[in-house]
Amino acid sequence: MVTLSSIQVSLKIGYSTPTDVPTSITAALESVSVTQKDNGPSAFSLQFRAERYNTFQEYPILETGLLEPYNRVVITVSLSGKQTVLMDGIITNQELSPGLQPNQASITVTGEDVSNMMDRVEVAIQWPAMFDPIIAFAIIGKYYFVGIEPEISTPPSSWASLLTGMTPQQTGTDRNYLVQMAGSHGYLTACWPQGPGTLKNTFYWGPPDRAGPDQSVINVDSGPYTNIDQITFSHDGMQAHYVYGAVMQDIVGYSVPLPVVTFMSTRSPDFATRPGLDMSHLQYKLMPHGGDNYLKAWADAQSETDQSTDKVVTVSGTLDGVRYGDVLRAPGRVVVRGAGETYNGRYYVSSVTHELKVGSYKQNFQLSREGVGSTVNSV
Among 50, 78, 206, 327, which is disulfide-ready with 84 (CB 3.0 to 4.6 Å)? Predict the structure, then answer.
């Protein structure tokens, strides 16, 4: 356990089962960086002082072997009496910077969340007569021994792929194939740790999770209640769009074009009162004219429309961790207050980078939603 400002950071490191690290290593910890993402692997970086008393000897911190690649790292933050696991991950890289003067050397280790274990072996296998969510469940289930548990949603289009008569073919690592399948449905993949001390993680395969509880409020321009260092809102009016086209299908011996068109987003619940996908401002994109099964083509078009609405409004900013008094998590949702009627309200948290140094805790965040105007009347 090391204290950085009013925040305490706990490190556990080990090859299979992480344990508390020696005081000599925690005392040498200078900075922690953890990036949590709603899509793709999360990452971490730890920087340590590397001191030695004889320039012809090895650095003692390296002799422990704890900072070697493939070791598992659990990073826990204690803030306002609440423990939060920021990262359960695997070291993938180690870097030594000797410095220009004695005892100015530093060791930096970086890595990814434990889903890195799913990205090490490439395979070429078939998944005959199986729906994508069933395939995802089977793949994730292989990693229960390292504490990875599945959370899987069933897309409306999952069964339509079977009607094409094609057998799903995996070529590559398990994690890459999960990402590939998710993308075809407008879904996300992410792995995040569960509670402190559990050594369990959830691998999520599904749409953006917009239904969870709100996190602590982000206050903008609110006098003594302001808890941000900076924030920027961006509204892209050309982002959201409908999709239309046609698919040739054989009907009683004739090849007939069947129309495909989207009319709405299926993302829910709504976060904006004036969404970018608005019939008063029509924007259509043409889908490829192909021979796919009609239902599969429609599902692909709907997936594209859904994804186009995810980032109509984006927000980037930096929270002061001590003033905020909480740990903002991604994925999740949060309410912004004090930015005016156009940009106030509820947002989806797509990424947070936690930067911890002695005397400083910053949380750099990325938020998004489908339009402007708040669905939240008061906070």
Answer: 327
